[in-house]
Amino acid sequence: MQTSNHAGTDSVWAGEEKLFAEGAICVPVFNAVTFGYDDMNDWFDVAVGKKPGHIYSRNTNPTVRPLEEKIRIMDGGEEATSFSTGMAAISNTLFTLLKPGDRVVAIKDTYGGSNKVFIEFLPRLNVEVCLCDTSDFEAIEREVQKGCKVLYVETPTNPTLKIVDLRRMAAAAKAVGATMVVDNTFATPINQNPLALGADLVVYSATKYLNGHSDVMGGLVVGKKTLVDQIFHYREITGATLHPQSAYMILRGMKTLELRMQRHNENGLKIAHFLAAHPKVDQVFYPGLESHPNHAVAKAQMRGFGGMMSFSLHGGFGDVCKVLESLRFAHRAASLGSVGTLVGPPRTTSHVELSADERANAGIPESLIRYSAGIENAEDLIGDLVQALGRV
Ligand SMILES: *Cc1c(COP(=O)(O)O)cnc(C)c1O
Fold this sequence. Notes:
By secondary structure, the chain is an alpha/beta fold. It has two domains: about 5-255, 3-Layer(aba) Sandwich (Aspartate Aminotransferase, domain 2), CATH 3.40.640.10; about 255-390, Alpha-Beta Complex (Aspartate Aminotransferase, domain 1). Helices cover about 40% and strands about 15% of the residues. It has a seven-stranded mixed sheet, sandwiched between helices. It is globular, with a radius of gyration of 21 Å. The structure holds pyridoxal-5'-phosphate (PLP). Pyridoxal-5'-phosphate binds near residues 87, 111, 113 and 185. Pyridoxal-5'-phosphate (PLP) binds near residues 85, 158 and 217.
């Protein structure tokens, strides 16, 4: 297997054999549900894990495995496993690690689905959930010090791009023996490696930047082998398995991950600077701007700031609609991290379940626009924003 110290090389080669059956240079898609053995002893040895091989595709599959290896190598983890969606990866991880009576500390600004697991499903299992103000690192440390089984964070966050200090949180978790889980979906291994900063597990929605083309869903978990093995076991039994065809699509998408992230980073920075100087724009939320309250932390733990940002207008929701409906190079749709620019208001996308008051409490203005800059030409995207903002 070919690996290197460079993400651009690993995104192409890591986890993949040099040649497959018949000399194929791409990972074949093994759609087989089950794998046959002529020798009953061999079958038994593989089934009990004494010999490498595959038994049944809910557990392992030879197309899925190279994808798990690729993300494991790119994140510098000991082991990795995969899921049908990002939310399956996140919920299975939490359900594996937490049992009744345990306490979990997390932040208020997690992804909407993750937030629902914290406020709706974990309390039902008698797990105590403590959600902290995302930017108040001291408050998070204080809650962790009180004792917890898991510290769960996400950085940058959705939709206001808050930053959590990962080294500092890892130290707090370590001091009380808590497992620290980081959702690294926005940054990807190209921009940020939470395991190198002290996290125990990293979770991904591969649906976003990793696949990058908004045409397949998936989830990944990487980190300490003892933990990932337990999470794999939970998944092989409960069954939120990644389909081999989806694994192939993510493997193919990941070959251009470094190239795409470089462009997302460049476009993100240019567009954020443009918006920050625009008279119709009130606030811009982007960790690459010096005006971001945790720009220094972002710079210390990220190699690039990505293509995700949000901005608010001086006008109200009517102006938001006018701008969104005027954009030509943007899909008005949920999701993010695709080659094509995606835009939407949080009240329709990430925070649709909240009332206007709850969104205000969460620091999400009604005039906010979430913007996932694609890999298009930056001048075209900025020109498009110029004409759309000109309508209000
Ligand atoms: C989209 C997303 C998820 C959920 O992933 P799915 O693949 O949609 O299940 C989790 N975390 C973050 C940060 C996301 O953006």
